[in-house]
Amino acid sequence: MALLMEPQLALGLLASATGVGALRLAWGRRRLWLTAAGWALLGGAAALLGAAAGAWGVAVAAVVAMLAAAIPLAHSAVTLAPGRVRAAGDAAAAPGWRFRASDFGRRLAVFALVVPVGFASAQLLAFGAQAAARRAGWGDADTLALILLLQPIVWTLLAAVQITRAGPARMILPALIVALAGLLLWWPL
Amino acid sequence: MKHEPLAVPRTLVQRALSGHGAIGLLAGALIYIIALSGTLIVVHERWQRWEQPQVADSGGISPAAVQRAIEAVVASEKGKPRTTHLYVHMPTEGLPRTVVTTDHGAVYVDRDGRIVAPEAHAWTEFLSNQHIYLHLPMTLGLIVVGILGVMLAALVITGVAAHPRIFRDAFRLRARGSRQIAQADWHNRLGVWTLPFALALALTGAFVGLGSVGATLIAKAYNGGDIERTYGAIFGAEAKPDARPAPLPDAAAALTTLARRFPGVEPSYVILHDPGTQGQHVQIIATHPRRLIYGENYAFDTQGRFIGNAGLSDGAVGQQVAASTYGLHFGSYGGLAVELAYVALGLALCVVTGTGMSIWLQKRRRRGAASPRLEAAWAITVWGVPILYVALLWLRAALGAEVPLALVFWAGLAAAMLVALVRPGMIAPRRMRSALGAMLVATGAGHALLLPGAVPGIWGINLALVVAGAVILWIEHAPRRPSPSAR
């Protein structure tokens, strides 16, 4: 409640919630200006709250926007016509996973490449990045934070890229590139 | 039954969907357990208070009373090995009680600093340890949970890549009619709207969980393997130990100094390092309003004179970012309002996780490759785990805080999984949902009836339990029109 007594914060929270409302109004109506207004309100709310209260403000703006979406979703759940299952198309698009002994090796290779190899590659890149940052004059706290933050981010992206390759063989190259980048950052040419 | 060979999906969307399914299959159950336990422990302090309602709240406590509490606890441990650390949990909005913890246990103290009862929140602790360590040894558990955080983040990204219309359909929620479409819509709609939350939680969780690996590398590369020194760059270093005996430090003076020098901050913990030795020092963790950081570490000498702060609030960017990951992950930056928002978003994440696997299983069934054993095992995961949580709560209430809840949980889950795999026909999700609803109503009502006279915060949890149970029962048993797919 105390937050609402402060104009800048109250305006930011309001913009965050109404931004979602504007997007809902624009949805299905092909009103580009309304869509743009919705995104502008969301961006403006984050900027306003960020300026007023830093990262805390941005986090609060995001939480309010996500919660605000519950209202149009609830409305949609109540009013939209019941869904009907398509004859077979949807099912046909389902991944063709079968538990067969012959697939075991392939699955094991995918697991090994995405989990331990992906982890190690990402760790190498994060370590290389902090080593480069250290050479550039960053302090101990910043370089430690960098390696701790970068590793999961790089690994996530790498895993997403690997898992969308056509087969295990094609998952090797992304991991190799990431690891190589880490080595280059660690030992600059 | 004819089995097709494993097809390699050709388009990016197909490959993303396939990868999304693969990660879900690999890690879905554990991600669900971590999401559910995490959702519950957002309000862990409130659960702790609810779990021991008979302990009176101490409310605000004076620095002198904190000092008396420290001395009383140290005196009560005479004859035991000297504790290496002593923590005083200062009263907060969620847990308005003062708790003193040493290497030998924890006790509540009243507002005058007198010991009133042992801390015995075994169930809350069980949930916290499940979320943070999966009940594994500490470092291994953190790493496993961190890996699952990365898997969740990868699920989010591949989920978006697998659904080209996911943003275009952001408001399309067909909750009625076909169960399969309803589940797909719940999965995709909640997934897209909680995307920032899921990504933030997954990556901050991975940061916390996998941190030990990166820190170990840094320690070995630059600090001769000294992990404490490495982490000291962010959180502040500990003083050099000196085991020679000394009188206890003046924590009251430290609290008074803190209040005078930093009037805008709220002490959450008073920590004595190596109390009763020449090497002791006082640290106070204090929260800063409207900051994501979990707090700032303020250091004081034995006389309560201010030495300095670690810099979590105003130091290097890396320190502030690192300290902020905890607040962002645990939702501890905005009081009850943000906590409730995190509970709601956490439940949404549970729905996304739960429906994801269900959709996959339904698609298999429609393709003529039903997996009744997997379906039963997934029903045990989604509905059996919360049932086990409530059952453990009853067990704790009946037998006391000494019951090994983690052991009972994993043994119970393993037994239920075994039944699901051997006799899948015995697993009835509908009956499980009804049982869960009834158990939640009984727990809330039972707590209110058996432990009357409690404070509003405790009544609030009872009410939430009854409402949650009633909603589950209503959804399960409300008369509904036949769905188009059933016609």
- Share of helix of chain B, binned: 55-70%
Beta content of chain B comes to 5-15%
- How far is the N terminus from the C terminus of chain B? 27 Å
Count of individual beta strands of chain A: 0
* Class from secondary-structure proportions of chain B: alpha+beta
Fraction of residues in helix of chain A:
over 70%
Low-pLDDT windows of residues of chain A: 87-94
User: pLDDT under 50 segments of chain B (min length 5)?
Assistant: 1-6
Q: What letter string, H or E per element, gives the SSE order of chain A?
A: HHHHHHH
**From the alpha-carbon coordinates, what is the Rg of chain B to the nearest angstrom?**
25 Å
Account of the 3D structure:
The complex is a heterodimer of chains A (189) and B (487). Chain A is mainly alpha-helical and 189 residues long. Chain A has 2 domains: 2-78; 105-186, no CATH class. Chain A has 7 helices and no strands. In chain A, helix 6 packs antiparallel against helix 7 (169-186). Chain A is flat and about 55 Å long. The model of chain B is unreliable at 1-6 (pLDDT under 50). Chain B is of the alpha+beta class and 487 residues long. The longest helix of chain B is centred in the last third of the chain and has 32 residues, at 335-366. In chain B, strand 5 (266-273) and strand 6 (281-287) form a beta hairpin. Chain B is built from 15 helices and 8 strands. Chain B has a domain at 1-52 and 131-211 and 335-369. In chain B, strands 4-3-2-1-5-6-7-8 form an 8-stranded antiparallel beta sheet. Chain B is 59% helix and 9% strand.
